[in-house]
Amino acid sequence: MQELPAWISERKAMIKEIRTVPKKTTLALRIEGRLEEFVLEYPVVWRHLVEHEPLMTAFAHPDGRRVVASVKEEADGHRWLHVSVSRRDRLPSYQDLADVKAAFIGEDRDALQLFPRRAAHVNHMPTTLHLWCCLDARPLPDFRTPDGLV
Length: 150
Fold this sequence. Notes:
Blueprint: H1 6-20, E1 23-31, E2 34-42, E3 47-53, E4 56-60, E5 66-73, E6 79-86, H2 94-105, E7 128-134
Antiparallel strand pairs: 1-2, 3-4, 4-5, 5-6, 6-7
């Protein structure tokens, strides 16, 4: 098998690096009346659509998924990243949600999906799911058993 010329191998390596280096956008975080910056990294396959305002931004995936991300200080005093994922004609799958969690929240952070009591439930978008990530603390106990299972 003939070896590729060096310039082709170098170009392939450069293209691979461009496709894997995450892009970044900056969100504003309002804390006690002042704005701070929060840098959100996301994979290059996602297209940054528009910043709705300094506190929120949106993304599109080639497969039709849409993501809206925001970050704010909540009543508990912690900074929370909120990421929603939607599809035009159906509820996103578990895999859709897991991929979005990995892409926008990260593999090394916990994310929560909330199922509120009936009286507190609001659903403005029937084809949207939501995740929250506390950026400052781990708000839940470690539910693992002594043998490491959940």
